[in-house]
Amino acid sequence: QKDGWGVSDLYNTWHSGKWYFEDTPIWLHEVNATGVILSHLRKASAGTGRSVSENHPYTFDINGESLVAAHNGFFEGTSWHNWNKDHPATDSYRALSDLAQKLRESPQDLIPTEMFNEWLSEYNEGSHYAVVLHWRNHVYALRGKTRTLGLMRIGNGVLIHTSYSVLKIMYEYAQRLHGLSVEVPLSLADNALIR
Predict the structure, then answer these.
(1) pTM of this prediction exceeds 0.85
(2) Under DSSP, is residue 62 helix (H, G, I), strand (E, B) or coil?
(3) pLDDT tens digits, residue range 85-132?
């Protein structure tokens, strides 16, 4: 994906508008690798912006706390949701901003399934999504019917990825090159939500 990239360790976020392989991974020497790392390689959807600000993950302030989120796919029907010329020009930002607003209006320690369902019901049937987000020390992964999302336990952590093929490669890589304890990758079912 050549339209930019972003990495967040929940303390710092790095973004670039360049192709990841042509860019210096400035985050590698600064990242706090003891917790969650959320990253995204972007292929811009038609009609969306291509500046650095459009690159995920996005961070939203929820009453002094951070919701950090990345999305793969397209949310159909976000054209005028929370539109502001100073915000990233993407369907992802607008949709995730709507979820952030729901959390502001009804703060939750754990985001309930009902809130996700209400949020997703606001978008048209043509939406395609795989979303990974972090809220109050919990990582959530959810997907619709068309975008893939899989997970694999590696050592004492979990790798979540939008490509099952990449997870299979990482399975071999972690075992053979690093001798890590690795579980066979799992593919999330359609319309799945895990925490």
Answers:
(1) yes
(2) strand
(3) 788 888 889 999 999 999 999 999 999 999 999 999 999 888 999 999
End-to-end CA distance of the chain: 27
Report the C-alpha gap between 6 and 126 in whole angstroms: 26
Query: In whole angstroms, what is the distance from residue 73 CA to residue 128 CA?
Result: 5
Measured distance CA(128)–CA(145) in Å, rounded: 7
From the number of C-beta atoms within 10 Å of its C-beta (0-12, 13-18, 19+), residue 6 rates as buried
Query: Among 10, 16, 23, 65, which Cα is nearest to 40's?
Result: 16
Q: Which two tokens stand for residue 42?
A: 């972007």
H-type alpha helices, 133-194: 164-178
- Give me the chain's average pLDDT, please: 89
In single-letter form, the type of residue at position 34 comes to T
Listed range (6-10, 30-34, 51-55) with the worst mean pLDDT: 51-55
| Burial per residue of 42-55, b for 16 or more beta-carbon CB atoms within 10 angstroms, e otherwise | bebbeebbeeebbb
Residue 52 pLDDT greater than 90, yes or no: no
**What is the per-residue pLDDT for 82?**
58
